[in-house]
Here is the input.
Amino acid sequence: MYWNQKYECLPREELKQLQLERLKITVERAFYNVPHYRSVMQAAGIEPDDIKSLDDIRKLPFTTKEDLRNNYPYGMFAVPLSEIVRIHSSSGTTGKPTVVGYTRNDINVWAELMARALVSGGATRKDVIHNAYGYGLFTGGLGVHYGAERLGASVIPISGGNTKRQVMIMRDYGSTILTCTPSYALYIAEVMEEMGVDPKKDIKLRYGIFGAEPWSENMRQEIENKLDITAIDIYGLSEVIGPGVAVECLYKNGLHIAEDHFIVEVIDPETGEPLPEGEKGELVFTSLTKEGLPIIRYRTRDIASITTEPCPCGRTHARMSRVSGRTDDMLIIRGVNVFPSQIENVLLEIGYTEPHYLLVVDRENNLDVLTVWVEVSSKLFADEVRKLEQLGRKIQEEIESALGISVRVKLVEPKTIERSEGKAKRVIDNRKF
Amino acid sequence: MKVNQISVFLENKSGRLAAVTRILAENNINIRALSIADTSDFGILRLIVDKPDTAFEVLKKEGFSVSLTEVIGVEMPDRPGGLAGVLDILEKNNFNIEYLYAFIGRGDNGALVIVRVERLEEAVRCLEENGVKVVTGDRLYQL
Ligand SMILES: [Zn+2]
Here is the structure.
């Protein structure tokens, strides 16, 4: 099922032609309307006319979150505020927030992309979409909301929090599609269990469309088993547009990127050089149709790979792998880059554990020490000390071989590690720099 | 023949054992035997209680990692060498003992020991063939 078959299945040659036309317009718009773009392009000796092929995009300077912060709040907008109909912003935990603005047309495009994403993830206009993404400055809630309305589904704008009430509403209102972060989906499953609500009998959910944080294939299986649904991965970030930049189809083998609205590149985060198709690197996006905040070569800090291999679903748009890490979630432990997601993958591939873990980093005698707390679930609990010690050792060895550094593993009781209702907190760094 | 033992995962920090025993007391569950196997990081609490199924449910509901393990209850003469005799039989017949611990009450004819052994059913047969009395779960929960 498609929402917009013509564009979702556009032959790649036509798609490239469309991208080039739109790229030229975007670069021009940015150059003439955003002082930041004009000055960085002039400094690099580039003019809009220099963009003659898609490969010429590499001549353009990157845009970073720092650039958005330096132009806080509206400096990167390409239209006057009178043209802006919506403002979102990302949390500013490490400095000023980044502010993004949408024209009426941008909101239209975004709703179109989200309608496509919902349909790609199994939704129809008959569905009741339980939207537990946060509403507000965060793009998740309203992004899904507008897409669901565009599709014509019935959307329940429940937002996050008050999980028992969520379960009650899900049961009583007959929600069929759940949209939230994957960690919150698991938390909902836990609360259902505590409340004695059986997802197979009491709940009508069929699909879940989950994003806004990295997750793993095993976490998908766990969500699918616990909630008795098909779980679909969705990707997006506010600087690019919000959720709907990319989404899986029901083949669940990579997320189709809306290439008629964005150009994606994968670069080496150290050198900035493009990487060959299939290699993991930092995702970089350029918007092709955005008016309010055109974004050129935005460095997402998300790590993934891209393939343009045909997909059995018929969509021609390139697929990105799951985001396997963040360059800025990256911890540097004894000089080695460590992503929490690497540890999550190891734990889940071992297959025994619930994905509840915590990384604690300490500095002892000037040496970084990483301790991984892992909850021992009933499923994994063995009655023999020897078996539990083996489990601990196995976890330790697998993490060590994945990271290349030594770690300690601490087995802890269930529910020791704090559950999050939004983005999961996976790291406690006690080092003083 | 088999006895259902409750095993609980405990971190080595204060108050955890007390928490388990308090939950059992609140649910009117009587502990018949208890042992703790611990390492520097964690411990396994093993319990024989009068209502194992209820104990399993309430502990699980309280968020503990719990498992039910099958063990056997062996009665032996309450005199020096009583235990050694039983262990000899198991060893001679190549049954590996994972662990054992004493039962608080007494059997009809002697002391009781809880044994976790490989190939449980074969072990029970072997003991009985050698004249050792194996006590059933139902009997044991009520002693
Ligand atoms: Zn597909």
User: Anything to note?
Assistant: The longest strand of chain A covers residues 367-375.
